[in-house]
Amino acid sequence: MCGMFLADHGVDVIKVERPQVGDEIRRSGETKDGVGLFYKVLNRGKRSVTLDLKTEIGAEALKKLVKDVDMRAANRGSDLLSLSVQIAQSSCDLSNQVQSFPLVTG
């Protein structure tokens, strides 16, 4: 819900989803065109991209996405979350920003 609230208040939110399966709630509940209402509500106002973070191409794409971000919010399994945090932190230049890079989970 964190991303939804941020998007509701004008923040540019980019949702990163896994290939093939995407977000598990995408297909849960009542669906239209294969996308559930709950998913549509929680992800309104967000941009979305599919990346395989276990590949070099996916990791490089994530590095480009997070290069100038102010914060990250995550709600994934610990292995992918850990991987995305490692990739993101290795590519962010915080020299011109506040030396804080919060990660919101849950």
TrEMBL record:
<keyword id="KW-0808">Transferase</keyword>
<dbReference type="GO" id="GO:0008410">
    <property type="term" value="F:CoA-transferase activity"/>
</dbReference>
<dbReference type="Pfam" id="PF02515">
    <property type="entry name" value="CoA_transf_3"/>
</dbReference>
<dbReference type="InterPro" id="IPR023606">
    <property type="entry name" value="CoA-Trfase_III_dom_1_sf"/>
</dbReference>
<dbReference type="InterPro" id="IPR003673">
    <property type="entry name" value="CoA-Trfase_fam_III"/>
</dbReference>
<dbReference type="InterPro" id="IPR050483">
    <property type="entry name" value="CoA-transferase_III_domain"/>
</dbReference>
<protein>
    <submittedName>
        <fullName>Carnitine dehydratase</fullName>
    </submittedName>
</protein>
